[in-house]
Every structure is written in structure tokens, then in C-alpha cells.
Amino acid sequence: VVGVVGGGVGGVVGGGGGGGGVGGVVVGGVFIVRNKLLYYLFSFGTELGNELFYITFFPFWLWNIDPYVGRRLIVIWVWVMYLGQCTKDIIRLPRPSSPPVVKVEVFYDSEYGMPSTHAMSGTAIPFALFFLTVGRWEYPYAFGLLLASCWCILVCLSRLYMGMHSILDVIVGILYSVLILIVFRPTLDLIDNFNLTYQYAPLFIISLHLAMGIFSFTLDTWSTSRGDTAQILGTGAGIACASHVNHLLGILPDTPLHALPLSPPAITLTLAAKVFMRFGLGVAVLLVTRAVLKAVTIPLACKIFRISCTDTRQARKRMEVELPYRYITYGTVGFNALFLVPFLFKYLNLS
Question: In terms of domain of life, where is this protein from (predicted)?
């Protein structure tokens, strides 16, 4: 079943070195795209669970749509991805073997397969967005539910097409994500209010996320999931700390209850230009932050822990380097996304 479904949509290796699927054909061990529409559609679907999507979608939502919803969405995303990655390293079930599966994407091949964290994020993000905006924004809720369902289905099918998961991996990921949503949704008010108002919230947030990162690094040997986990935890900690600072300074105040529900504004040329300027400036700040911190933290960690830095790729496989590099870098990126960038918008009259 894994061989046919996990790779059959994208292409199954045939006995004579050639085989075909709905999306492509294998010739001499090389996957050749036969249906470009399916290939690009599922490539887009798999990108909805990758770093490029997160580093653009979350900031865009925070800067241009609704920071209140964005903060809570990121809390859910952090817990879903953290629990998913840790569960992978505990269960340790391998990805579908190749052959018979054709692996169109191989970047995450070093990770375990169950549960599919792409399926988890592809379920949690759209449906959390739907539940968080119902009653807060005026829009056709049937359309919102349909969009969330299509988003989820696209991401899940893309993992089968790419040959990275079996059907069971994807189903477990969906159900696991639903369970986490059921458990955490009632606690969002408590968590968000704690992050905003508790005096020592930043200290608690940083300590908790760091401890979670250290625990996850002890579960198994190196894989890309360790760095991703530290990256997600750092981003979540940075966003939560920025929320606290914003609350103290009155930056990005929440919409008062009497002004709800919110109506989408009319799309004008002026609004589009302002959105584009905000997004362009904000992403530039985040990219500079990421580049500077990456250049500083890796050599610094190597020096502190006396690890050779001649081969950066090998050095990053050590917990003493990977954890502080990812945690500090993406923690600062998250903090700047919700504090420094909106502060610049206010200063430049782009709010």
C-alpha cells in the first residue's frame, strides 16, 4: 500500500526501470514530470509546510491583517509542530522506502515518517484560522470552511505525491493535529493573557521553550527535525516576548470588543501600496536579522563549547551549536517580527 499510494501518485518504479503514475514517469531511476499541473500544484502544497511559507505568511498576517489572531495561531503552530516532531523521534517509524516509492522531495528524508508534520500543520493552521476568525471577522463562513478544507487536502495529498509519507502517516498526522486543537483551543485565552500581562512572562517563556528544545534534542541522533524544532520554539518564544513588550508600550493594541466584528476593508490602490511597502520593509528587516544572527551565533557557540568551526555543516550537528544558533536566531526574528517591525511602521507612518 505504501509503495502504490506513497509514490504511485507521483510515480512508481516499474520492474524494468520505468514506471508511471498520475503525475510522472520513472526512466532509468530518474523521475520525469508527465503532468506539470499536478507537479506544480503539489509542489505548492508541500511548500505550505516549509520555512519559506512560515517566514512570509505569519509576518504578513501579523502586519496586515490581525495581530490578535496571529499571536494565537502561532501558539497553536508551535505546540502542533513541537509535539509532532518529538513524537516522530519517539515512534521512529521510517519513511516509505525507495524503491518502490519515488521520492520527488528528499530534503526531509533523514527524518522519521510518523506522524506527518506537514499534515499536522496543514490541518492545524487553516482550521485554527477559521475558528479564530469566526465571529471576529465578517466573511462567508462556508467559504472559510471550504478554503480550510482545500488547504488541508492539498498539503496532505502533496506528501503522498512527493513520496515522503504513507497514507497512515498522513491520517495519524491529521488526527493528532485535531486532538491538539481540541485540547489547546480552550486554553488560548489563558496563554495569551499570561504572555501579555504576567510580570515575569518573558523569563518563563524563554526558559520553557529552551527546556523543550533541550528535551527534544535528547530524543534521537541528528536529523533536520532537531534544527526545525529549535527554530519553531525560538520563533514562538520571540513572538510571545514581543507580545508582552507591545502590551506594555501600547504597540499593536487589540481591537476593542465593541468594534467587533471586523469587516474586510475595501481594496484600493493606496491600501495595496501600503501593504506592499509594509511587507517588503518587514521581510527585509527579518532577512537582515536572520543573516546577522546566523553569522554571529554559529562561530560564537563553536568558540564557547570549543568545537571546530572549519566545517560549519558538521559543527551544526552538535546540540551545543545547533540549539543556540536556531533558538537565538529565530527567537530574535520572531521578536523583531512583532515588535521592531511594527515599531518601524509606526515611526514611518505605515501603520
Answer: Eukaryota
Please name the residue that has the C-alpha cell 530574535: 332
Which triple of cell numbers denotes residue 9?
501518485
pLDDT confidence band for 65 (50 / 70 / 90): very high
Concerning whether 118 is annotated as a catalytic residue, the answer is: yes
Residue 258 catalytic?
A: no
Domain boundaries, the chain: 33-185, 189-258+266-350
Residue position matching grid coordinates 493552521: 125
Residue 41 phi/psi, 5° resolution?
-65, -50
Give, in order, the Cα–Cα distances in Å from 140 to each of 66, 152, 266, 289.
18, 19, 16, 38
Q: Which set of grid coordinates corresponds to residue 197?
A: 500581562
User: Given 118, 209, 247, 258, which residue is catalytic?
Assistant: 118
Strand partners, 38: none
Q: Report the pLDDT value the prediction gives residue 160, as an integer from 0 to 100.
A: 85
**Residues 11-38 pLDDT 10s:** 433 333 444 455 555 544 566 777 788 8
Higher pLDDT, 319 or 3: 319
pLDDT digits (tens, 9 = 90+) for 103-159: 666 666 667 778 989 999 999 999 999 999 998 999 999 999 999 999 999 999 988
- Positions of E strands within the chain: 18-20, 24-27, 30-33
- For 278-289, give one letter per residue: b (16+ CB within 10 A) or e: bbebbbebbeeb
The phi, psi pair for 317, rounded to 5°, reads -80, -5
Specify the length of the chain in residues: 351
pTM: 0.86
What contacts 73, CB < 8 A, 6 or more positions away? 58, 61, 125, 128, 129, 132
Distance CA 54, CA 144 (A): 20
Note whether 251 and 343 are within 8 A (CB).
yes
Q: Do residues 263 and 77 touch, judged by C-beta distance below 8 A?
A: no
